[in-house]
Specification:
Blueprint lengths: L22 H7 L2 H5 L12 H5 L12 E6 L5 E5 H19 L6 E5 L4 H12 L3 E5 L5 H11 L3 E4 L1 H7 L11 E4 L12 E2 H7 L14 E7 L7 E6 L3 H10 L8 E4 L6 H13 L3 E5 L5 H11 L3 E4 L1 H10 L14 E5 L5 H11 L3 E5 L9 E2 L13 E2 L5 E4 L12 E5 L9 E2 L3 H5 L2 E2 L2 E10 L5 E6 L4 E3 L2 E3 L1 H8 L5 E11 L3 E10 L7 H14 L8 E4 L13 H9 L13
Parallel strand pairs: 1-11, 3-4, 3-5, 5-6, 6-7, 10-11, 10-12, 12-13, 13-14, 26-27
Antiparallel strand pairs: 1-2, 8-9, 9-19, 14-15, 15-16, 17-18, 18-21, 20-21, 21-22, 23-24, 25-26
Helix pairs in contact: 4-5, 9-10
Bound molecules: adenosine-5'-monophosphate-propyl ester.
């Protein structure tokens, strides 16, 4: 089906004048240096993300403005002004320095629910010069272990409920010197940990922020590839220039906005746009502790009068499924702008936004590695439903052939970006060769395939690799296969993404069993649970198909391509390297 362009509103009809008034003019005039100068640097070389996000507002009228309004699943509310966050993050920085002895560059990881302490802790760590590593609270022990071991994290901030999942891995982490336990109202039940509340109680409210260099490491987010374990994409303090500029021009944040980003702080969207982007712009944001619930989400928008909403395609598809009548039961008049990221946003969803909320969802594209939005739909442009939009002003993407030469509009190829923007990752942690391998012919190769049309709009086609995108979570098939073959009944396993109406893809595993094991329903459930417990629910195969043997290359590599073709009923392609059996 052809979808019609959604024509832009003339500038004078916008109730709030967009920050990006004219794409072409700003694109031509844009310079990262100029946008950098809007921020409060210590000097031309030194900047600290937490200073920009919080303390820089203290000398302005935003000092007592609400920065964070948090609502728990039980409906309890906590509010923090910029001054509160500054004070509390100073305290946390003192806790780290005085009670754990962390030094500049040390990794401090957060395995914590979506509670205010994760925001305070992250800001405090950055102030102290530490490198933050947020972990998704739904991770299982294997996923947590991979990240803590690889990063050699010195401190872990967690909670009594979550530590229970990972007690077995702790003895195998010699670099992890200290655990800080955020108890909130739970009973403290882990001896040997530093109690957050007590340590914060004795910490001073004043702290001199470490004057980090713009290239000093600040943030690590682990991301999955086709092979090997997840890799730590490392970002620097100077990245905040990118968070700031994109939040201003793409999310179109204005001082009077109430902004809601639904992403969990364990993922890059939750830090770039759930902390640094909005706060560097001095914006009030609201956070809901819980996960998805159509009714609860609409209620949340109504209650807090959310004006700008940043969410994800799977959530939008789930809202569509919940019905067109449901939004009418709430007063959603406050909403003025809606954006989406993380997976392909189908044109139906864009148009549905227009029908139900009176405005489309604005899709945008970026990655853990890019650190900030690269391609986007803006308030002042026509939207072509199904397109990711146009490049951010300071960004030059291209579509390349397999020899990494640029292709003309209309041709499908590798989506690449010219390196050099502030929030670009600086390395994969201790995997410099892998990092370097992502650059070809003067381009950063994203691993996605896409097209560009004559008007400069980009269209996502697929991943170029085997990585599965399920509900916006990237899952490396290798990680899942490695866990599957640890199950006592499993001989071999191959994992692919199977198309799904809501989650876009779900994980499907093909499994051959060891002698003496029968392919029963119970066994299937047991294997699913096994992966869910060790990795996460996103990574657990939604479907398991038992087969006698897996298609392999002569060197013994499982051919996921063949499994995928088989699943989709497509031609098998070149199978000349398949084993003969
Ligand atoms: O494949 C693309 C898909 O998600 C990948 C990035 O995922 P991650 O590193 O977890 O970053 C999350 C922060 C956005 C991309 O390589 N992706 C992201 N946005 C879109 C998308 N696919 C299609 N359309 C999008 N708008």
């Amino acid at each position: 089906m052809e979808y019609q362009k959604i024509t832009k509103q003339p500038l004078e009809q916008h109730a709030t004048k967009p920050n990006l008034e004219d794409y072409q003019t700003i694109r031509e005039a844009f310079s990262w240096d100029a946008v950098s100068r809007e921020l409060d640097w210590f000097d031309s070389e030194h900047i600290n993300i937490a200073h920009i996000a919080v303390d820089a507002h203290l000398q302005t009228e935003r000092r007592d403005k609400k920065a964070l309004v948090w609502e728990s699943t039980k409906g309890e509310v906590e509010e923090y002004s910029f001054a509160d966050l500054a004070r509390l993050s100073n305290k946390f920085a003192n806790v780290l320095v005085n009670e754990t002895g962390i030094q500049k560059g040390d990794r401090v990881f957060f395995f914590l629910e979506r509670v205010p302490e994760i925001f305070i802790g992250i800001l405090g760590t950055l102030k102290a010069g530490g490198v933050i590593g947020p972990l998704f609270s739904a991770f299982g022990p294997e996923a947590v272990n991979d990240r803590l071991a690889d990063s050699r994290a010195r401190v872990l901030v967690t909670s009594p409920a979550l530590i229970k999942k990972i007690t077995d891995i702790l003895p195998g982490l010699p670099n992890l010197e200290k655990i800080i336990m955020v108890n909130r109202k739970q009973a403290p039940d882990f001896s040997g940990a530093l109690a957050y509340e007590e340590a914060m109680g004795r910490a001073s409210e004043s702290f001199e922020i470490v004057k980090t260099g713009k290239e000093d490491y600040a943030i690590m987010h682990y991301t999955s590839g086709t092979t090997g374990k997840p890799k730590g994409a490392v970002h620097v303090h100077g990245a905040v220039v990118g968070h700031y500029a994109t939040a201003k021009y793409v999310l179109d944040l204005h001082p009077e906005d109430t902004y809601w980003c639904t992403a969990d702080p364990g993922w890059v969207t939750g830090t770039s746009y759930g902390m640094f982007g909005p706060w560097s712009n001095g914006i009030t944001q609201v956070v809901y502790e819980g996960g998805f619930s159509a009714r609860r989400w609409y209620k949340f928008i109504e209650q807090w009068k959310v004006t700008v909403w940043y969410t994800a395609p799977t959530a939008i598809r789930m809202l569509m499924k919940a019905g067109d009548d449901l939004p009418g039961q709430f007063n959603l008049d406050s909403l003025r702008y809606m954006c989406s990221v993380g997976e392909p946003l189908n044109p139906e969803a864009v148009v549905w936004g227009q029908q139900v909320f009176g405005m489309p969802f604005h899709d945008n594209w970026w990655q853990t590695e890019t650190g900030a939005i690269m391609i986007a739909n803006y308030p002042i442009q026509d939207i072509k439903p199904g397109s990711m939009g146009r490049p951010f002003p300071g960004i030059t993407p291209g579509i390349l052939d397999d020899a990494f030469n640029e292709l003309p509009p209309g041709r499908e190829g590798n989506l690449a970006v010219r390196p050099g923007w502030p929030s670009m990752f600086r390395t994969y942690w201790e995997k410099e060769d892998l990092y370097q391998s992502r650059f070809k012919n003067g381009w950063y190769i994203t691993g996605d395939r896409a097209k560009k049309d004559e008007e400069g709009y980009f269209w996502f086609v697929s991943r170029a690799d085997d990585v599965i995108n399920t509900a916006g979570h990237l899952v490396g098939p290798f990680e899942v296969e490695s866990v599957l073959i640890e199950h006592p009944a499993v001989a071999e396993a191959g994992v692919i993404g199977k198309p799904d109406k809501i989650a876009m893809e779900v994980v499907k595993a093909f499994v051959s069993l060891k002698e003496g094991h029968e392919p029963t329903n119970e066994l299937q459930h047991d294997i699913q649970k096994f992966v869910m417990k060790r990795l996460s629910s996103a990574a657990a195969p939604r479907e398991i198909e038992f087969i006698d043997s897996l298609p392999k290359t002569r060197s013994g590599k499982i051919m996921r391509r063949v499994l995928k073709a088989k699943e989709l009923g497509l031609p098998l392609g070149d199978t000349s390297t398949l084993e003969d059996d």
